[in-house]
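pipeline/complex-builder :: batch 7 item 3
reading input block
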Amino acid sequence: MISRRAALALPFLATPAFAQGPARVVVVGGGFAGATAARALRRADPAIAVTLIETNPVYTACPGSNEVIAGLRDLAEQRFGYQRLAAQGITVIHATVTAIDAASRTIRLDSDAAPVPYDRMVLCSGVDLIWGAIPGYDEQAASAMPHAWKAGAQTLLLRSQLEAMPDGGLVVISAPANPYRCPPGPYERASLISAYLRAQKPRAKLLLLDAKDVFSKQKLFQAAWQRLYPGTLTWVSQSEGGTVTSVDPKAMTVSTDFETYKADVACIIPPQRAGRVAQIAGVADRTGWCPVSPITFESRLVPNIHVIGDAIIAGAMPKSAFAANAQAKTCAIAIADLLQERTPASPRLLNTCYSLAAPRDGFSVAGVYQPVNGVLTEIPGSGGMSPVDAPDSVRAKEAEYGAAWFGAITHETFG
Amino acid sequence: MWRAVILLLAATPVSSHAWAADPPPGAVTCSGCHGEGGMVAITGRNAEELTATMEAFRSGARPATLMNRLVRGFTPDEVRAISAWLSEQRS
């Protein structure tokens, strides 16, 4: 027997909701993934009515925020608003999503605004930090031991702690196991903080405790550390006992299975999962991350919801701003195709990612990806890292290109 | 060519440009680095020159820091298609 409610819902489901007017695509989350997607949808098909829902009126970008921590850059340079998106005809709503009803394709908000209907949704939740995954490390602990893994107040807190630290102090950074946002981020952070210590607090030390043995751009970072920071920076791998097992923010101690370190400054980057909105939408699986089609980025769990950016299981693609930007444009084209009942073509995606070992000393990793058997796979023979033996002039050039990368991607994302 | 330009103009809303139809695989990702505020602009340029530059990166005839790694993810035919599409874009 079909319940009355189900019977009422059936004709609604059977009819495309956009039959009465322009297709409605709602983007939830306004980071690199979401803001790019909103703009790309307008470029893919100007007839689509695009809405962006984002809690914060100002976005603070993570790429480059390690330079803020090291005193090389102002946080203001990381901040972007949504005015250019609104000027492009995108309806921008600053509110927080409280519920998603996939059956009726509506999004409920915390504001007084009416529920927002969608034909297709692009969900860009980013990541949530898993409080308590490291015993002792909860939201309150982050005010003593900043993660600084979401740029903003946490970035400035870590910066001010480093400035206040006496010479001869110990900085401890904890890097998580994979997967997490920005794979080379902890290592760039350790590098740039070491550069600051060398210049301003030459007797201070930095200990990088790692929950893994292998990491992004490893050969490049390790060569740079040997060249630039011997005696200052020590990396402790997982097999050397680097996994942090607990922290005590009152005592400012960081413990592994073998040692307890008393830190003057502790930056704890905890394990992560797809952000809250992905969890309430039901698009995250038991891993905490979101399985998607590598062609359309539509959720494998909930139809009509596409998921892009750091929240997804993206095969060989890393959780990076560039990957999110590339996925957003690819997804926008696929959605425009699906709304016109065209079959989306198999895409090609790129990643480019620059890191600094020191000011004016940079290197990169690149990748080209395509779906193979439903998984985004790196094309053999393509991509890879900068050469380890690159001369100073090339590393200086890559540092400049890294700055240009930031200029281009933020301009494309936010206008 | 003129038909493409007219189609582009007709489809262009205020303060943004619609993409020319059917970007070949990978073509829309270039603008993550190349464009306003970033690395050298590559839209609206001569398609043959773009292709020749990419192939010079592939062979090593032209030194590169990163494009030599990216071009190897595309066949010469795919590079030609992307160059043709980029040459039709306004920005």
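note: Chain B has four helices and no strands.
queue -> next item
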